């Protein structure tokens, strides 16, 4: 899952990025509203975290413009203000949730998990394809009774594939969801990670789940 954090307090923004990366999310950061708008419109994210008080465009205007563009990505608003009027305004312009600073990362993680479970295609708490299961709450992957240890990127790649089962995902789509905007991605990066993932979830005698669709990309599914 890929998250955009728009926060002008550099220390808080970077600490939030590190904390989210430890939770196996790919994270991009913008330190002002204008850069945040460019990223939100130009890139594909699964969730946006916006500070209310930002240089350039403030969080309210940024949220408005994102929604005006037809982008329905879940948005969490952050602010040091705790008045009810600020919360109502943020929700009225399209935010999905609201947190007041200072906040705990554990609470933020819980809010994120709740928001990304809302879409119908990912409503199930545990993702399952045949005997392969991925628990996004506990970051556990199992094939039957065998627990599988994955790297952060392998986990993110598998989760993205499983949330879009039976759908062919291009290399470009995979890169945009699993890697940060400023990551140095080599042409063979996706192929290498797919190979490593297959080696771990498709041991000898187990059904092959990840399929390469020549000239198009990759898919995972029941068939």
Task: Give a concise summary.
With about 220 residues, this protein is of the alpha/beta class. It has helices at about 10-20, 35-40, 60-70, 85-90, 105-115, 150-165, 170-180, 190-200; strands at about 1-5, 25-30, 45-50, 75-80, 95-100, 125-130, 130-135, 140-145, 145-150, 210-215, 215-220.
Can you put this structure into words, describing what you see?
Helix 2 (33-42) packs parallel to helix 3 (59-68). This protein has 223 residues and is α/β, with parallel strands linked by helices. The strands form three sheets. A five-stranded parallel sheet has the order 2-1-3-4-5, sandwiched between helices. It has helices at residues 10-22, 33-42, 59-68, 84-92, 105-116, 152-163, 171-178, 189-201, and strands spanning 2-6, 26-30, 47-51, 75-79, 97-100, 127-129, 132-135, 140-143, 146-148, 210-213, 217-220. Helix content is 39%, strand content 21%. The longest helix has 13 residues, at 10-22. The protein folds into two domains: 2-116, Response regulator (Rossmann fold), CATH 3.40.50.2300; 122-220, Arc Repressor Mutant, subunit A (Orthogonal Bundle), CATH 1.10.10.10. A hairpin with a 2-residue loop joins strand 8 (140-143) and strand 9.
